[in-house]
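Q: Could you fold this chain for me?
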Amino acid sequence: MAEPRPGRAVVTQAPENPQNVSMSHEKKLAQNEAMFRQVNENIEKAAIEHRYEATELPVFVCECSNEVCGDLIRLSVTQYEDVRRHGDRFFVLPGHEVPEIERVVERYETYVVVEKTGLGRDAAEETHPRP
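A: Sure. Below is the predicted structure, expressed as structure tokens.
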């Protein structure tokens, strides 16, 4: 290893703490879901403005933690509102749930509702667009 030159600090990397990395990753995944939730808030607003009937199913974006997902889910505005009532819940396609950061609380034929756990729950509630 080369000797440091006079007047220069020697920078050493602290060993990584896997728990901190995990917590940071958990928060990032929750932020991805919150981003999709915001997109869906705009979709719902447009659906209401266009006076969708209760039986019509607007197309929403899967709210899973995969930032490049973009898969679509058809929900009624009522179904959408049922999920939005909870700041820590998201709807995702079956198989898109991540058990390490969320638990399934409702299961339907075309989607599941997940509830964030741990730090992800805090991040989800902090970014919830509703009072």
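A (continued): Residues 1-21 have pLDDT under 50 and may be disordered.
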